[in-house]
Amino acid sequence: MPELLTVKQIAQRTGISPRMLHYAARVQRFGVPALNAAVEAGTFPLHRAATIAALPHDAQPGALAAALRGERQPKRPTKAERLAAEVKLWQTRCGLLALDLERLTGRDAVAIMDGAIARYPGGDA
Prior knowledge:
- The chain is an all-alpha fold.
- The chain has 2 domains: 7-68, no CATH class; 79-119.
- It is built from 7 helices and no strands.
- It has helices spanning 7-14, 18-30, 32-40, 46-53, 63-68, 79-105, 109-119.
- The model has no long low-confidence stretch (mean pLDDT 67).
């Protein structure tokens, strides 16, 4: 059987104030309207309320606690964002290589590459 903790013990272990835990319990039990009422009454910080309200229903277990402490959970990039970052990295690398090629040869890198592609069997430059 799991250990039953008091609000004070939970507050000490998590670093979240008892008042914030109380509001978290209200949100869990009554939903976001209870949180909105607390914000309107001026008893709950608006920026933390927005963070909590924005949490998805399937948020990670520590997400609510982090939101109550005022921390932000790092958002995991989507596959498209990761690919875009990788493409940008390769564009940067290619750009730097082109600059090095131009600096070393004194010729335009695009013209050099077009000539190399034309000499390659099956090249279409």
